[in-house]
Amino acid sequence: MIGYAERSFVLDRYEEGRTRRDRLSSKIDRAVRKGKMDVAAQLEAELDCPPFPMALNYIWQSWARIRRRKSQGMSGPNPIEWPDIDAFCRRTGTRLDPRDIELIEMVDDLYVQKSAEQASPADKHQAIKDNLAMAAKGKKRQSAD
User: Fold this and answer.
1) pTM above 0.70, yes or no
2) Which of 64, 116, 132, 144, by CA, is between 20 and 30 Å from 10?
3) Three-class SS of residue 77?
4) What's the CA gap between 29 and 39, in Å, rounded?
């Protein structure tokens, strides 16, 4: 679950208004249209994510429900705390054993860490290029109408 969570958090991070997952998907489509299958294969490998462990779906869903109710701080999301988990269990009737709580904490620690990481300069540069290209396409469409 931790491998899936880590990769998902990286791919779902917003860069200049779009997620990294969305940017990679767009690049793959562009590479396929241009017939650059080797480039498309490299990008698909970058988009690859470990399989989601369905047996632990209840932990993922519990983490997501608790996470949705946490506020953002000045430096990113606030970590889930014991009172949050306790209130969740009491109010929903969910029973989590200590290992489940440990996994929720590990996933949340990873989420907070990945949220605090900044996009690399290369990613920022590519995001700006993508936005400029999208804006240019939008202007061409408007002038054609």
Assistant:
1) yes
2) 132
3) strand
4) 10
